[in-house]
Design a protein that fits this description.
By secondary structure, the protein is mainly alpha-helical. The chain contains 16 helices and 6 strands.
Length: about 350
């Protein structure tokens, strides 16, 4: 017999599913199409954060050049699905190809950095991300491969048969941003499932062992070289898929979309939400995508209160963002929603088991 206690988890999942399905219609009715577009970008950032979480949260490898894999996937899709080269390959071929090429770039990044740790690894990965961006920017001569800083436009939207996500009204009474929302939601759930399976697998436990103590993990028989390369490749492949989706969604990309700040933002999503914890990463990506957009209205609020703008809204957004991160590091160093293991690492033994210390006294 099903008891109320056993029905509660299923009821919660049904409510979450209903909320996710109805979200684009409710948001558009109350806030407009612009905020549905923000929801689409939020799902993209969740995919990126889940990919970087494999490298940083699971394996403990500080990667500041993750946006390079995002750029590789986006430019691969744009070059092969636009009038730039006259090719219009289907998305079901380009998305796996983008994941494969981005994963190869992840291996190319990981191979020379296997012996690096901490700050040294961060500096090398940061340089790799900047090299990719500058390379894309300057690859417009003499063959004009990437069109340089002008970017690539008229990128084909994702289409399944006669159904195009850019013009979905022919079959359903929804607009393009709502159609892309459901596509991004399905792929986000798929990536979440892969990450959950990896987390409790032998590979996931090997990554955690490397994160905690690489020397001890190697002494216990873990092939740290292969595990690190696999972490870089898996994280990069998720970035490549997200890049292809971003290119098809925007219809235009340029090197400006893949600067260092994007890598920093994705890393902050993981740190803010809770490294190594999938719900925490999702929470961090959601907050750091939605809140900055909400703060864009700070200028209008200042005009309403003071009849003038005292602080530029862009500066105010970054000021509040930096203040929030400082406060997080002081009061919640494990993140807003940390994993239980990560939380235990940051708690003293006497706080975790006070009864043992009371008996000793």
């Amino acid at each position: 017999m099903t008891t109320p206690l056993t029905r509660k988890p299923w009821l919660g999942l049904l409510l979450i599913a209903a909320a996710l399905i109805a979200a684009p219609f409710l948001v558009q009715a109350s806030l407009g199409t612009y905020w549905v577009r923000i929801l689409d970008l939020t799902l993209l950032y969740i995919m990126l954060a889940l990919g970087l979480n494999i490298v940083v949260g699971y394996a403990g490898l500080l990667d500041l050049g993750y946006v390079a894999f995002y750029a590789v996937g986006a430019y691969l899709y744009a070059l092969l699905a636009s009038p730039h080269f006259g090719l219009h390959l289907p998305f079901w071929l380009l998305l796996p190809l983008g994941a494969l090429v981005a994963g190869l770039f992840g291996v190319l990044l990981g191979a020379p950095t296997l012996r690096l740790r901490g700050d040294y690894l961060a500096i090398v990965t940061l340089g790799f991300g900047e090299i990719i961006r500058i390379f894309i920017t300057n690859l417009d001569r003499p063959l004009n491969i990437t069109n340089g800083p002008q970017g690539i436009n008229l990128i084909d939207p994702i289409a399944i048969g006669s159904f195009s996500f850019a013009r979905p009204q022919a079959l359903f009474d929804i607009n393009s941003v709502q159609a892309y929302y459901y596509l991004f939601l399905a792929l986000t759930l798929l990536i979440m499932l892969v990450c959950l399976r990896l987390q409790d697998s032998r590979i996931g436990r090997a990554w955690v062992a490397i994160r905690e103590d690489e020397t001890a993990a190697e002494a216990m028989g873990i092939n740290t070289r292969n595990m690190k390369l696999l972490a870089f490749a898996m994280g990069a492949s998720f970035g490549g898929v997200s890049g292809g989706l971003f290119a098809s969604f925007q219809g235009f990309i340029s090197p400006e979309s893949f600067n260092l700040m994007e890598s920093i933002m994705i890393l902050c999503m993981i740190v803010l939400g809770g490294m190594g914890n999938i719900p925490g990463v999702i929470l961090g990506a959601f907050l750091l995508t939605i809140l900055p957009e909400a703060l864009r209205y700070a200028g209008d609020l200042q005009r309403l209160l003071f009849d003038r703008v005292l602080v530029d809204p862009a500066d105010l957004r970054m000021l509040l963002f930096g203040l929030a991160l400082v406060l997080m590091m002081i009061f919640r160093p494990a993140g807003l929603w940390p994993s239980t293991q990560r939380q235990r690492e940051l708690v003293k033994d006497d706080e975790l088991h006070p009864e043992l210390y009371d008996e000793q006294k």
